[in-house]
Amino acid sequence: MRGKESRAPGGTAPEGYDKYAFEPFAVTVDLAVLTVRAGALQVLLVERGQEPYAGRWALPGGFVLPHESAEAAARRELAEETGLSDLSGLHLEQLRTYSEPDRDPRMRVVSVAFAALLPDPPEPRGGGDAAQAQWLRFNALGPLAFDHDRILADAHERVGAKLEYTCLATSFCPPRFTLGELQQVYETVWGTALDRPNFRRKVLATPGFVEQVPGAARLTGGRGKPAALYRAGDAKALHPPLLRPSSEGRP
Amino acid sequence: MRGKESRAPGGTAPEGYDKYAFEPFAVTVDLAVLTVRAGALQVLLVERGQEPYAGRWALPGGFVLPHESAEAAARRELAEETGLSDLSGLHLEQLRTYSEPDRDPRMRVVSVAFAALLPDPPEPRGGGDAAQAQWLRFNALGPLAFDHDRILADAHERVGAKLEYTCLATSFCPPRFTLGELQQVYETVWGTALDRPNFRRKVLATPGFVEQVPGAARLTGGRGKPAALYRAGDAKALHPPLLRPSSEGRP
DNA sequence: CTGACTATGGTCAGTACGACTATAAAGGGG
DNA sequence: CCCCTTTATAGTCGTACTGACCATAGTCAG
Q1: How far apart are alpha carbons B182 and B1 in whole angstroms?
Q2: Strands A57-58 and A40-47, bridge-based pairing
């Protein structure tokens, strides 16, 4: 549009658009909310109570309201779904838009998908007018409703790729974290094991990725030598990137 | 939506949606069509004939029809705009969706933006019911209509980044090309000069990036030693990536 | 005290990359 | 026809990065 108003389907609208000269679309957002918990990649899902796909798991989401952008709708839905009032430290990123005409059997729905990363996963709040949201392990998910399998796969791929060349991994971590926790984020998302000394060397050699918390604070959680605490630096990109092993060697 | 039908704005629609229980959105596509021509990055633009932004350049695009996906709409609009019947060798990639409520002063328009790369730029066809599309140099563009400056900047950034770790550059080249042409794609999009022997070594060392045309075909265009011809290989990703110089050294 | 466990520090060789020099093959101008 | 410009291609060399290791330090469970 905009280059050629006359192309509006259903009629010509030379000056202002005729609001109903074209088929209206419902615009929604779908959220792939990821976290690393208990050493596994987990996703926030809701159980559908109605047809179609009753009983199946689906990504949380909802309609975009007339006065808000898709980003605002995503933040609002996420707050409602998780009950998380403070969305600081949240990474929310637009994935892509899914617009196949038959993706919702009831009507034409165009959905803008987002990937969101949470550091410390709060239990989804119970109070709500709809099905309860729950964290489920990314592996061993049955088929989801609609095209949500594809959305989730795209989100996983995107996050995995961005770990390589951005500092995104810190978005999975609490404000203070150890390098072991950071490494576990990489290993969990990528599904591979990394060499610990090499990972450490690489992260510390990247200026602005992490910075050590000055007051020699140390986390004593379980056994083993206590680890130094770090917080996220101000860098956004990783140069050179931290490539995942699976994508490098090709014997 | 889909997790909680009751959240449809404007009313509850327990089973099927009430088609007009929510504010309808117009859904459009906007195309950032890029090519490398005459040693410069060029963009396909149309001149607006009507308010708002009359006389300004805008990205080509149009409404998504009720029965087609955004991708299909993008292909259709591109064919109409360029008159290019064969869209083989075309790279079309969804960029992101722009949904700010006030991005079009007339009404609520949600636009799915695409980046398209053309190898050999055909002159845009004259026949059409709207303003003529033209190739303009990416530099020295005045402000575009709507938020199209931002869309174009995002497209440029995305393409520049994907040159680093994918084989996308071949999408800017004709079916047979020399390594010099391929290098010029990188230099034009990135706006930097590259060392020729090093570029050559890197490209040839990446398996599946390009493969030499067997029948010692050589292009004799201008002066200098004739160059060997190559075609795109079957690889999609570059490992390790070909990083642009600007993003590496940071003195 | 001992052993398991984790964090941290270091070595070493293979590889990739930037900067650079050299050679080959064409056309143009005298 | 010779020389010079132009472009393609080949190779060299030192530095930086990386993967695969080995070694040490600090804490907890028994």
Answers
A1: 46
A2: antiparallel
The DSSP letter of residue A166 is B
- Partner residue opposite B1 with nearest CB, options A23, A63, A66: A63
Give the pLDDT of chain B (251 residues) as one tens digit per residue: 444 443 444 333 333 444 444 567 999 999 999 999 988 999 999 999 988 999 999 999 999 999 999 999 999 999 888 777 667 778 999 999 999 999 999 999 999 999 999 987 677 765 554 557 899 999 989 899 999 999 999 999 999 999 999 999 999 999 999 999 999 999 999 999 999 999 999 999 999 999 999 876 677 667 789 999 999 999 999 988 999 986 443 33
Using the CB atom, is residue A220 less than 7 Å from strand D?
yes
Q: Could you tell me the pTM of the whole model? A: 0.89
Other Cβ atoms less than 10 A from the Cβ of B58: the count is: 19
CATH number reported for the structural domain that contains residue A88 in this entry: 3.90.79.10
Q: Which two tokens stand for residue A46?
A: 């809701």
Of B162, B185, B206, which closes a domain? B162
- Picking from B67, B99, B133, the nearest residue to A112 by CB comes out as B99
B21: chain A residues, CB-CB within 8 Å:
none
Question: Both tokens of residue A190?
Answer: 């990528």
Distance CA B110, CA A26 (A): 11
Has residue B54 been placed in a domain?
yes
For residue A11, tell me if it sits in a domain. no
